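I hope you will forgive my troubling you with a question about protein structure. Here, with my thanks, is the record as I have it:
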Amino acid sequence: MSRIIIPRRTFLKGMLHGAQVALALPLLESMTPARAEATAPRRCGLWFWGNGIRRAHWIPKTTGMDWDAPEELAPLASVRRYVNVITGLEIKTATHPHHSGMTGILTGARYEQVGTTRDTIVTTFAQKSLDQVAADVLCTRTPFRSLEVGICQFRGTDEGTTFQHLSHNGPNNVNPSEYSPQNLFQRLFGAIPGPEKNLARRSILDGVGAQIQSLQNQVSQHDRRRLDQHLTSIREIERRLSQLAGQCKAPAMPGDFPDREGKEQIAEKNRAMSDLLAVALACDLTRSFSVMFSSAGSGVVVWQAGAVNGLHQTCHDEPSPQPIVHRAVVFTMQQLAYFLGRLRDTPEGDSNLLERCAILGTTELSEGNMHTNDEFPVLLLGRGGGKLKGGIHYRSPNKENTTNALLTVLRAAGLPLPTGFGYGSGRSDQSISELET
């Protein structure tokens, strides 16, 4: 069979119940030159959780490849070869813990104060967040400049966009996270004719069935297998959303997962959002993304950890050694492990999505009860298309700037940053060479 060439951003389009729908395709060999694997796209992402960690259960005692896995990092065991743990870094722009940590680790800059409230300050990001810096370079031709996903309902404070949003284009200019799996699905993969229609109960594949059959008859055997994997993944997402939709009544914030007996369905929503984001990345709908698992200073009630109060207040009130806070971090890392596993299990050519991602996993504090900005928790996730080593614990010997980690992630994602990254006291021209190939 002669090899056809398919444009990289091809969509299959059709009609479903009177509405126009579109289905993005995964990366096929028919879309690329013969040596496509050498130039497969790299992605850059953020995965953020609020209120820090417990150092005693987070910092490995050993460094290098054979680091021990403390209890809060143990959930990442299944994806360990894609996880680099970085300890000993410090925010160099610190003057107000939550605010400094949030903007320092996401922009390499100090926050911009815009007011005061009660006994504290109101701030915004003075600079672009890391995902938007990456989007400027990576996403000039993708259908979406970036994707922003939220998991836990926002239960924060009135201290400005620094607390409420993760992705920023600049001061008070935010990219709000999407908290509804069904809304995200509709945005990415199709449209529905009215609010009474439920996309999760209809298959978008039915609207493009003829085009799918025609395409399968034209492409190579390898591409047919890849296309079948992609369509099976779409069917599974639709099936799962349909099951969940049957349990929901009128959507309430965050949308498809109303509380049950007053308890937020965090793990279920994380799975649905992780599945959708993996397919979006496989379809090359974007190459820059952010996941705000919980916001800075989040008041989410992690009932799975035995909590009855919000996490931020628990960090303040629970006596040391804070077992509920500790269990909340373990639960959070379990959710991160699912997301990373979903990327790892999504094939792309002879590799997988996680292999080609460079992701910064972090929070805004070290320990929530102490409001510390030193010993900052940082994870470098994925292999950056071969630019990052994996499975290493790197410990800074001299309280390095956290911006060193940002520079490492951005360079691994393919950004040309020869002179460094960051602003003012947060600027650095030094990446973490021990993690680079």
About this structure: Residues 221-245 form the longest helix (25 residues). Residues 81 and 391 are 4 Å apart (CA to CA). The first strand starts at residue 11 and ends at 16.
